[in-house]
Design goal:
Elements (H helix, E strand, L loop, with lengths): L6 E3 L9 H8 L12 E4 L7 H8 L7 E10 L2 E10 L2 E3 L1 H8 L4 E4 L2 H8 L17 E3 L1 H5 L2 E5 L5 E6 L9 E3 L4 E3 L4
Length: 185
Amino acid sequence: MTTTLQTSPALERPDLLAAPVLAALRSWSVPSVPVTEVLVAEIDPELADTAEFCAAYGTTLDTSANCVVVAGRRGDETRYAACVVLATTRADVNGLVRRRLSARKASFAPMDAAVESTGMEYGGITPVGLPADWPVLVDPAVLAAGRVVIGSGLRRSKLLVPGEVLAMLPNAEVSEGLGRPVSTD
């Protein structure tokens, strides 16, 4: 059974936003897109993972964006970045992201480190409200997708945003080649 998303302007439902996301929206500074265009929808937290969410709420993978936290290490130093790619792709962690972080090794950040560093729930991490010193790498396909569904910082809700606003977030970098097609093998 498909359920329709019931949306509201995000700032009207602060209970559906993680604290850093709420703070970022309250200080929204994207002049071409009013904050009222950032919508939020309450969802079943058991359906927060992308495939389950899309099946339950009738959303397509090519309008759902995933935000993954990557840890890059060189010696004793660890640097973090967020990667935003469509759900039809995977982030090029060991190539593009590793080089961007000037790291010898890059991998998905451990869950506890990602949660602690972002102040968001695992499975709900979003590019809105991330730490100010993190690069936010955004695949161009996300910008071209129109309105996309992303996390809200909580597993029990999702944000709906015009894709192009993700390139306007603090520290955002449009990174050609970030999203690699998912193998169907």
